[in-house]
Amino acid sequence: MAPRGDESMAPREQQIYARWLQAGTRIGLGLLVTTFTIYALALLEPLVSHQRLAELWTLPVDRYIAATSGPTGWNWLRFLGKGDYLNFVGIALLSLVTVACYARLLAALLRDGLPLQAAVAALQIAVLLAAALY
Amino acid sequence: MEWWIWPLALFAVSFAIGVVAVLAGIGGGVLFVPIVSGFFPFHLDFVRAAGLLLALTGALSAGPALLRGGLASVRLALPLGLVGSVTSVVGALVGLALPTDAVQVALGATILAIAAVMWRAGKADNPVPRPADALGSALRMHGIYHDPALRQDVRWHAQRTPGGIVAFAGIGMLAGMFGLGAGWANVPVLNLLMGLPLKLSVGTSGFLLSVIDTSAVWIYLNRGAVLPMLVVPSIVGVMLGAKIGARLLGLAPAAIVRRIVLTLLLIAGARALLKGVGI
């Protein structure tokens, strides 16, 4: 059998997944680096100053949150004006890429008549969303 | 000490981890968490979250090329990732609920066990084919990829799928609890237990990390355990180090790299263990 190009071996749904994954990851990493530059250079005031952060990062997370009145859950969305929590946009996006890819995968699997695989993909989306919203 | 020294040191250490991890063919998380928690002032909660994000970002970045080339299989990963992500959530919740010293001791013991597994574990480029099992067949866990080194297409199918699912339940638990990523365990399970070719096992392991670690990351993120000052220098350091490591891949002697990694794991594991018992 003749050697083939990279694209020929993977099933269609996998090619689609790869496209979505590449786009989401690039955007997420770009945002992460950009927002961290803003934070590290103190272009936007952080909720916890760099110096104070160095005094508190030895604490367990619960005590850190209590000491800084920092947000938990999705409440970081209310702190996007702060340099440190602005970084969460890129972090959250990177953590949501897989959910978006699975949602697209689910549609492709259903279209290709693979109900069992589609059911597993749907369960995976449910688990990821449950973790994100816990 | 000035605050910026620590992120800078973290970047340097992460860079070195990135180089060594690529040369050794392991994920960076398994080195990152014990080394950084053992030798930096950051609390283990933040280090575990950074370790997971590190592994996640690496897996997301490598994923598209692996998927397109057929060296990772979504169909293979679907059931394994589902089980692993459920248990990684449980692992993260347990890890955050337990006392830090207990987690530190367990981390040290786990790292030492990983070193032993890496020391003893074999590998099979193309395992002896056995019949596909019923569950693997029902889930269509089979396929074909082109191996440029062999200049031929390689057909594969999953074997012992129920055993693989059980193993991934354990892997997910450890990944979530310790923030380790899990490439060190994924590859032997896929290759030796499920009878999949080594290249497919390595590629699918990376893809599985992106699914399993995502679930656990959300638990740490929602608890407030993600500190960008730790996460971003680590991610950038490891990614840059991995690029250098990839260039050195043909030059570095594999046996020496393997010894370096095992030594690092032994030191980091022992350090975590001793820190956990207050020494």
Q: Which oligomerization state do the chains in this entry correspond to?
A: heterodimer
Q: Helical proportion of chain A?
A: 55-70%
Biggest interface pair, residues each?
A-B, 68 and 67 residues
Q: Return the average pLDDT of chain B rounded to an integer.
A: 90
Question: What features would you describe in this structure?
Answer:
The complex is a heterodimer of chains A (134) and B (279). By secondary structure, chain A is mainly alpha-helical. Chain A has one domain (12-133). Chain A has helices at residues 12-40, 50-56, 61-68, 83-86, 88-111, 115-133. In chain A, helix 1 (12-40) packs antiparallel against helix 5 (88-111) and helix 5 runs antiparallel to helix 6 (115-133). Chain A starts with 11 loop residues before the first helix and ends with a helix. Chain B is mostly helical. Chain B has one domain (7-276). Chain B is built from eleven helices and two strands. Chain B has a two-stranded antiparallel sheet with strand order 1-2. In chain B, helix 1 packs across helix 11 and helix 4 (74-97) packs parallel to helix 9. The model of chain B has no long low-confidence stretch (mean pLDDT 90).
Which helices and strands occur, and which strands form pairs?
The complex is a heterodimer of chains A (134) and B (279).
Chain A: H1 12-40, H2 50-56, H3 61-68, H4 83-86, H5 88-111, H6 115-133
Helix pairs in contact in A: 1-5, 5-6
Chain B: H1 5-24, H2 29-39, H3 44-68, H4 74-97, H5 100-120, H6 134-138, E1 142-147, E2 152-157, H7 161-178, H8 183-193, H9 198-223, H10 228-248, H11 254-276
Antiparallel strand pairs in B: 1-2
Helix pairs in contact in B: 1-10, 1-11, 2-3, 2-11, 3-9, 3-10, 4-7, 4-9, 5-11, 7-8, 7-9, 8-9
